[in-house]
Each structure stands twice: as structure tokens, then as C-alpha cells.
Amino acid sequence: MGRNPKIQFLASPWSPPAFMKTNEEMNHGGKLRQEYYQMWADMVARYVSAYQDEGIAVRRLTVQNEPAAVQTWDSCIFSGAEEAEFACRYLRPALDRARHSDVKINIWDHNKEKILERAAESFGVEGAREAVDGIAFHWYTGEHFDALAEVRRQYPDKELIFTEGCVEYSRLAADDQVRHAEMYAHDIIGDFNAGMNGFIDWNLILDQQGGPNHVVNYCDAPVMCDVDADTIDVKRSYYYIGHFSRFIRPGAKRILVSKYSPDIEATAFRNEDGGKVLVLLNRSDRDAGFVFSAEGKHSGQMLLGKHSIMTCCWES
């Protein structure tokens, strides 16, 4: 199997080494000691170089995964101002010295409900607007599409990247596959309509338990592999994600969608080749009929079944 040279990777540190931190361990939060900012930035730049040597292009970094969470697993606390200072004074220069000036830096990498306040704090630091390329976010505390849209309005030149989301067994039943798939599609549509640039699923493939996981925090995934039986279970969420990833191409521009029915959620894009894509989602318990109209042309009566998803593609 060959490699796809167009694939880009995002890397997200979860904790510096224990000796660099105030709590002297990689778990349970703690903070990066000021005297180790430079060393840690240099280590991250070396990480990018090592992957590049293996033919793997890391094109985006986040400063820290979930920098406001004290976890039982690898974690480290940064304030918004500290993230910006680290990015401006240490990480950006370290990447540039290592000839990685094309690597983009993202801040926050945490839940959407505080994304606006966090962006304001970080971009209030002198030089942050120049050093930081984007804002990363997760979905675990709700949709918060309005907050995301306001970040897009205030910072139109910054990327908005969804960098982590999964269906946790601690919150949701393992066998509710329709709900799991609809969680993905609903959040992708809402985030795109609020100005998101890209969406990354956290766990594309897991084993039959929803791991491996060193703190027993098991999750569902679009593809589950039973390593004992040597079988693969492709979940409904895999196909729902495909309604976006297979048709909305890199470089696509979002276009306006207006609709009558509250039962239908929708987002649409124009690809660079001129082709247009409309994704429709119906999470309701009833079928939804609709007429599709674009550029003065109308379809006949169409049907979006209850708890279903549809993608329409056309050219001007």
C-alpha cells in the first residue's frame, strides 16, 4: 500500500516530561516551568523534524491538548496568555530555526464553550496575531455553534480546526449507533456553518473494547477491530463522515443554504473544480419531503427519510 503525499498531519502534545513541570509528573495537570519553555519548544521542533525524516508531514501543531483540564492522564495547564507567550517567544522561533516555517500553530485545543474568551486572552498578547495561525477545539461540552461563529467573525484570518471528538462509553450506550452517527453529522454541519475549516475525528479505528486506553476510558469509533477474532466492524458513523469527506474537497468554499423545514440540517460547498456539494441530515422521527432549488433550477419532490443523511452533487 502506497502513501498519499497529500495527507497532512496535526500533532498535539499532551504533557512535557515530568522534570519540566511544577507537579513533577506527566499526569494530573501541573504547569510547564518557565525555565523549560525553550527546551520544550526545541523538543517539539525536533519531533517535527524526526517525522519529516520518515516522510510524514506534520503541518500543524497545537500548543497543548486541553490546556485547562487537570486529567488523570497526561495533561498540562496553560492560561491563554501563557499559550500565546510560548507560541510567540519560543515555539514559532524554534520551528523557524528548524526550517519548519510552514508549520502552523494552533491554540486552545479544548471545548467550544470557552473558545471566544480564550481567543481574546491569547490574541491580546503582543505578537500573537502574527505567530498563531488558528484555534483548535473539541465538542465534549455541547455544540456552541454561536460562540464558534463569533470567533470566526472576530478573527477572520485564523483557521478553525476541530481536533478531537469521540463517543465516550462513559456517557453514551455502545449500541446506539444511529445516535453516534448523528452526533458526528450534526456537529460537522453546525461547525462548518459557523466557519470551521476542517474536522478531525479523534479515533478512526479502535479495538473491540474501544481502546487501547491506559486509563480505561473506552470509546466508540467509526471502525472497530476485534483483534482476537481478526474481524473489522464498520460503524454507521464511518459512512456518515464519508458524506462529507468523500465529496467536500480540500480548498472548497462554503456556500449559502436556506431552508424551510426545521427537521433538515444542511451545509453546502463549492469545490475548486466548480462542483457543488449539499449535505442534508434528518435527525427527526419523521420523513422530511423537500424540493431542491439551486441557481434557478428546481428538482422534483424529494424525500429525506427519518434518521438519515443525504449528499447531493451537481455542476453549474
- Give me the count of strands: 17
Give the averaged pLDDT, no decimals.
95
Structural class: alpha/beta
Pick out the low-confidence regions: none
Cα Rg? 21 Å
Would you give an account of this structure?
With 316 residues, this protein is of the alpha/beta class. It contains seven helices and 17 strands. It has helices at 37-53, 80-97, 115-123, 128-131, 145-154, 177-193, 236-245; strands spanning 9-11, 58-62, 104-111, 134-138, 159-164, 167-168, 198-199, 205-207, 219-220, 223-226, 231-234, 253-255, 264-270, 276-282, 288-294, 297-304, 308-314. The strands form five sheets. Strands 1-2-3-4-5-7 form a six-stranded parallel beta sheet. The model has no long low-confidence stretch (mean pLDDT 95).
Secondary-structure map with pairings?
Layout: E1 9-11, H1 37-53, E2 58-62, H2 80-97, E3 104-111, H3 115-123, H4 128-131, E4 134-138, H5 145-154, E5 159-164, E6 167-168, H6 177-193, E7 198-199, E8 205-207, E9 219-220, E10 223-226, E11 231-234, H7 236-245, E12 253-255, E13 264-270, E14 276-282, E15 288-294, E16 297-304, E17 308-314
Parallel strand pairs: 1-2, 2-3, 3-4, 4-5, 5-7, 8-10
Antiparallel strand pairs: 6-9, 10-11, 12-13, 13-14, 14-17, 15-16
Helix pairs in contact: 1-2, 2-3, 6-7
